Amino acid sequence: xEDARKIRVLVLDDNPVLVDGLRFIINSTRQLxxxxxxxxxxxxxxxxxxxxxxxxxxxxxxxxxxxxxxSTTLLTLRAMAKIxxxxxxRDVESGENFIARGYSGALSKKVPSAxxxxxxxxxxxNEVIIDLPASVPPNASLQQVDLQPNKLSNKEELVLRHLAxxxxxxxxxxxxxxxxxxxxxxxxxxIKKLELRTRSDIVKYAISVGWLQx
Length: 214
Prior knowledge:
Elements: E1 7-12, H1 16-26, E2 32-36, H2 44-51, E3 55-58, H3 60-68, H4 74-78, E4 82-87, H5 95-101, E5 105-108, H6 113-124, E6 129-131, H7 154-164, H8 169-175, H9 180-194, H10 199-208
Parallel strand pairs: 1-2, 1-3, 3-4, 4-5, 5-6
């Protein structure tokens, strides 16, 4: 009965040492219990359904790669649990951008353990928590991404815009009346031209050229 009252926190990161450390920290309090994916978990949605977490603490680049390689969107995942972006020095998005994308919070990996645990409890209680360094250069999120939208064809830009809003490939295909295979081709051409790799890169590009202003 005591376990049933605990806040269930799923840790998503590709660094097993970090995952083990977070499990130890989270399990150190009586109010929280840590969950992790198993090696057999190939489908993120099915794993989340099975584990039934209240909060997902996710390294955003790892989560973006997982979502981009599946038909799952952040919005689908958000309907199942609250999600916190657990960011390291590679992530130079502002906390507000993470919230706009659908996260319930954004934390630096440098926050002390007590603040991390407090943030997990607060987000579970429907609060929005941002605890990131304040000094983010306004154009730093672009890194070395090419900012020439005229390099894209109209269809390539349209597909990329839809991806930036978190839509799945099948959803985009239905919206713009193309086959899923054709949409995949336009996506591949667009990200290759702009040298983008993850959904996070696509979102950063969209923000930089003003697609997500409205």
